[in-house]
């Protein structure tokens, strides 16, 4: 069967995966509708207005029908699980932080969750998910990877990468491993600035090299960052970001590793490259480096300008059309393989808020991970317990704040189960926040539940935690981490330390159920492994 004949504009449009900063996608995509588009990426603000999965599915179907020319290739999303999830909890079951799977060292459980996630994504209309994160969490102060990583070594990360790739491909959804050649050793957020990975090590390449050798890696996302040591080894320019480096994407990834899958850039509007280089040239640099798909979070005017620039370069003979054809061939081959996978059908009731919550609650109960539990336990909390609750202000947590549209928050679940704290407070998670909250000195409190969020990056949290302990020296502290488990390294020893699966509604309910449950007990150890949860 011969490949359809496309115009130059239609072919170039297939190299773009774009989104929109506004809820109204149609206004930004209007220019692309006539030519088609390689992919559409949806963010939380696009999905938040939908009350039902049926409405969302109909919307995605409508979007596919709007594109003429070469049509719409991918509909993509970042649905990693836990912190990075775009789909609202009332129409999709929320997952778990990748670090939770890593702490439990349970690839089987990871596979069970991701199989259901991938199948549901496909039913809704998505055929691309930017997961797994195969970065190695090696930098204590990394502001962007952290909970999104499965571990700190390649051997630990690889089993999770394999199962996520397999479960997604089996559902007809393209998984995209990220962030090549490794983002876990940095201390700068590439959303805002260009990181230099001075501590990068060759081990960060192992997940990619292993998966390529096994012929199981279909796509990668290239990071915006400088890698001086890697550039030195490749005799490359150390001042060129990996996402724009021919030596890294073509010389290393394609030629040395033998990778024949798709290469996506990270968002070309991120601060790491945007403003650092000519916006009209950066797409050309990425293409010439070896990228197949140019990712822009906004279609207008940035992606459209890049589109016009590439078309003009080809028309003037400054860029060979064979470069475009080469990328298009890989894209069409990948999309054809995905389309051949049969879709598992769901009843729409499976996407009701109640059904999604119950599925997420089941995962969250399994995902709760106890890291330390000192004898004698302060659990279970009861109506008679004099306890205080300190937690992050969800309004300052950009990943979790949208959840407030539907469902109970943590205090709501406490009230639901009849264990209301005698005192409670929230704190902002911004590092520069002024922690002036009271410590309830003089009030009778025998248990403090302190929910920490990356306190190793937030001195204010540490100071407030220590003030609380000093004000209530006889109180037993239950420390719950809803970010990285590094809280144990900067906060003085709690009585109990537990890793939460996320800070989403189902995880909050599972946590409250755990707080009111009686732990199993051996001679000296009390354990999270409960035979039953209360309902």
Can I get a quick summary?
This protein is of the alpha/beta class and 535 residues long. It contains 18 helices and 19 strands. The protein is 37% helix and 14% strand.
What would you say this structure looks like, in words?
The structure is a single chain. With 535 residues, the protein is α/β, with parallel strands linked by helices. The chain has helices at residues 8-13, 25-33, 44-47, 53-66, 98-104, 107-124, 154-171, 206-213, 228-234, 246-256, 279-289, 299-315, 321-339, 353-367, 410-416, 459-471, 487-490, 505-515; strands at residues 16-18, 37-41, 72-77, 79-81, 84-85, 128-129, 174-175, 177-180, 219-222, 262-265, 294-296, 369-373, 387-392, 423-427, 447-452, 476-481, 496-499, 520-521, 526-527. It has a six-stranded parallel beta sheet.
């Amino acid at each position: 069967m011969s490949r359809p004949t496309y115009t130059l504009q239609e072919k170039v449009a297939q190299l773009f995966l774009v989104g929109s900063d506004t809820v109204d996608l149609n206004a930004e995509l209007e220019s692309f509708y006539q030519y088609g588009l390689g992919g559409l990426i949806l963010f939380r603000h696009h999905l938040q207005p939908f009350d039902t999965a049926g409405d969302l599915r109909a919307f995605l179907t409508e979007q596919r029908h709007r594109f003429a020319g070469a049509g719409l290739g991918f509909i993509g999303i970042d649905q990693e699980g836990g912190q990075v999830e775009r789909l609202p909890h009332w129409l999709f079951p929320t997952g778990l932080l990748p670090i939770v799977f890593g702490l439990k060292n349970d690839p089987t459980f990871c596979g069970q969750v991701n199989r259901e996630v991938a199948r549901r994504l496909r039913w809704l209309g998505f055929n691309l998910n930017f997961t797994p994160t195969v970065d190695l969490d090696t930098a204590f102060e990394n502001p962007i990877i952290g909970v999104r990583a499965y571990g700190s070594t390649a051997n630990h990360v690889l089993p999770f990468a394999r199962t996520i790739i397999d479960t997604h491909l089996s559902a007809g959804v393209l998984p995209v491993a990220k962030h090549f050649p490794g983002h876990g050793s940095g201390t700068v957020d590439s959303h805002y600035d260009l990181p230099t990975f001075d501590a990068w090590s060759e081990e960060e390449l192992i997940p990619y090299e292993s998966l390529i050798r096994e012929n199981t890696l279909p796509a990668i996302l290239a990071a915006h960052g400088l890698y001086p040591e890697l550039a030195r080894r490749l005799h490359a320019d150390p001042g060129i970001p990996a996402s724009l480096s021919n030596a890294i994407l073509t010389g290393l990834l394609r030629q040395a590793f033998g990778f024949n899958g798709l290469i996506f850039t990270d968002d070309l509007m991120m601060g790491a490259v945007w403003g650092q280089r000519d916006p009209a040239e950066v797409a050309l640099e990425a293409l010439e480096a070896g990228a197949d798909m140019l990712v822009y979070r906004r279609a207008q005017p940035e992606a459209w300008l890049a589109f016009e620039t590439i078309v003009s370069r080809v028309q003037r003979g400054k860029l060979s059309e064979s470069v475009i054809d080469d990328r298009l061939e890989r894209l069409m081959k990948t999309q054809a393989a995905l389309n051949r996978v049969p879709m598992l059908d769901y009843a729409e009731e499976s996407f009701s808020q109640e059904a999604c919550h119950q599925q997420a609650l089941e995962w969250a109960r399994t995902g709760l991970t106890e890291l330390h539990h000192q004898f004698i336990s302060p659990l279970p909390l009861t109506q008679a317990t004099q306890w205080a609750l300190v937690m992050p202000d969800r309004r300052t947590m950009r990943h979790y704040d949208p959840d407030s549209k539907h469902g109970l928050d943590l205090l709501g679940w406490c009230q639901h189960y009849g264990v209301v704290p005698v005192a409670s407070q929230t704190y902002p998670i911004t590092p520069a926040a002024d922690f002036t909250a009271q410590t309830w000195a003089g009030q009778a409190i025998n248990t403090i539940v302190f929910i920490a969020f990356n306190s190793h990056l937030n001195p204010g949290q540490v100071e407030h935690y220590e003030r609380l302990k000093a004000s209530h020296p006889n109180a037993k502290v239950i420390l719950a981490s809803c970010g990285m488990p590094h809280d144990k390294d900067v906060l003085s020893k709690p009585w109990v330390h537990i890793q939460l699966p996320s800070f989403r509604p189902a995880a909050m309910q599972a946590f409250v159920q755990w707080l009111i449950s009686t732990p199993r007990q051996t001679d000296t150890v009390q354990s999270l492994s409960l035979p039953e949860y209360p309902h």
